[in-house]
Design brief:
Elements: H1 4-8, E1 11-15, H2 20-31, E2 36-40, H3 48-57, H4 70-74, H5 85-94, E3 103-106, E4 109-112
Parallel strand pairs: 1-2
Antiparallel strand pairs: 1-3, 3-4
Helix pairs in contact: 3-5
Length: 123
């Protein structure tokens, strides 16, 4: 159950318009008439402080915040090198396109909404 304070805080979505999961999360929120703010993180890169705060709110391994996709491989990166907070933050500051999306924040909790249905646990 959400506290009154959490229930009144707006939801923030770190969004990439090119991502189907990200668009799906926005559709789910709109369908439920949930008010939210969108941050297009590829235009408005998160700061070190913001990344550290997001990591502190996420459940699960910090490595989950990094996309191990084609771009990751193009850069010649090794997943084992990005398993701790310091290395993940440094990587995402340099390559924000590698941040998993969408990240949805509500109150003191954050989730990676892949697939978008994972949002249900936050709502």
């Amino acid at each position: 159950m959400l506290s009154d304070e959490d229930a009144m805080e707006r939801i923030t979505v770190y969004h990439n318009p090119a991502c189907g999961n990200s668009r799906g999360a926005l559709e789910l929120l709109r369908a439920r008439d949930v008010e939210f703010d969108i941050i297009e993180y590829l235009k408005e890169h998160p700061t070190r402080e913001r990344l550290e705060k997001i990591i502190g709110m996420l459940e699960g391994p910090v490595a989950d915040l990094v996309r191990k996709d084609k771009r990751f491989k193009e850069l010649g990166l090794n997943p084992a090198d990005y398993a701790d907070k310091k290395s993940v933050v440094a990587l995402l500051l340099e390559h924000p396109e590698l941040m998993q999306r969408p990240i949805v924040i509500h109150g003191k909790r954050a989730i990676i909404a892949r697939p978008p249905e994972k949002l249900e646990a936050l709502l």
